[in-house]
Fold this protein.
Amino acid sequence: MISRADVRGATSACRAALLDAILHSLPVGVTVTAGDGRLILANEAAADPAPRGGTGKILRAADGRALMVADRRVEALGERLTVTAAVDITDRVRTEEELLRRVSYDELTGLPTRRLVQAHVEDALARARSGERLALAFIDIDNFKHINDFYSHAAGDALLAEFARRIVAPLRATDMAARISGDEFVLVLDPIAGAEDLVEAVHGLTERLAQPFYIEGFEIFASASLGVSIYPDHGGDYETLRRNADSAMYRAKEGRRGAVFFDLAMGRALTARMELEQRLRLAIRDQQFFCAFQPKVDIRTCEVIGLEALVRWRDGHGEIQGPASFISLAIELGLIDEITHQVLAQATAALDTINDAFGPDTTVSINIAARQADNPVFMRSFIAALRATERPHRFMLEVTEDAFMAKGRFQAEILPLLREIGVGVSIDDFGTGYSSLSALADITADEIKIDRSFITDIHLRPRSQSVLKAIESLGTALGMTMIAEGVETFEELAYLQAATRIRYAQGYYFSKPIFLEDAGGRAFDALASRAGADEGRRAPLSSRGPQANRARISGRS
């Protein structure tokens, strides 16, 4: 006869066998350790954490928790049983959702990011039936950097948020707007019924964006440039449509036309641009950039007091390219930094020749783009390179007045470092930038170069004469040397000599840029000869060096 104790024992044994089977079949690792750290028990999942058979899914509990639920089939006590395990993964799911949100949505504007809009367009294109069309617009805020610098970065952020709201306001449920970088947005209009509807939508958007923004008590006008491409006319995938819309946007920005639709001519221009980019990168690698020098002249004594180093590019075909053909793209791509370092190296190598021709006090000016001037990383490396020449006092940096904006970094962080090593600073193209009088009052530059637009035909333009007198008074009050740029005729020079106190000038009337590479002094001798022409109306140029008429400078126009 079986006793109750036997029954209890058998039941306990069965229960133990069942629990052991369940424990080892669990898809999650389970370990039991003693107080001293000894391992008492571990199931198979703990010993081998690789994914195991069975099904798993995430379920939401009534209280909102996320549970990972997994099932496994096991054999125990002669039966096929199903073991279900549930693990609370609420914290993990919340973290993953937050990471996905940050990747997919812009924190400042709440708009989708590049990744999400690309997926949206690709999905729309995959679903598009024959004859269906959509439009992709690339939008860029004009002169956003100036707004950031003048008002504040907080004001700039507020402007971006309001800008995004204006873009989104009229959109349909099937449309999408995204912020893909600092001041760049993409708008997808899907579907578009016809050209007239699209033109009307784009026109309405440009009108909304042209209205003033009221930010932190300021009334800010911030226009935008739009480029539009259409599927399937201008591309069959997101990247092609975006690239073509980007190309149209740059055309709009160049012509200040608000919005431009892509056409095939722009496609050819884009191809040419990509080819130029590749050639520029190879030119930097092969050090194909060099200097031409144009003199700065004392118009009272015709003495050369300085030279401006102007970058030139001798391409793979041996042809010399001026900066107009490549400098804007180099700045946009960030290639200008290496080019500027190569210009400094060339100018430094030419100092001995310059000494022989013009004397050891002659300065050499190097142009710095406003974007470079506001980049402390580049400027600190360039200052180190200037110091390494062991003659930094021989150099002057020419920067446009935009670099001196009151809230910019150049004035506060970089200018003191230049002063420390004796490098001069010149405000280039003065009169064409955005500086206010209050900003100019804080500038401690050595030199103002008056833009050529004020000098051309100055003897015939009374309004330009009045502006020039005002600039002259400002420069005198601030203690800065003034140089008139772009002097090309005797009449312009004669006016400067007779009607102003401006002492220095630069331009083709005195000399085209000349190259320091041929021996014999032919270019400088020719320069001196031209200076004495015009039936004696001007004195010949002279140098301050011991060899006033035998400079070792040669050149070509």
Observations:
- Residues 524 and 553 are 5 Å apart (CA to CA).
- The first helix runs from residue 4 to 25.
- Residues 1-33+58-104 form one domain.
- The radius of gyration is 36 Å.
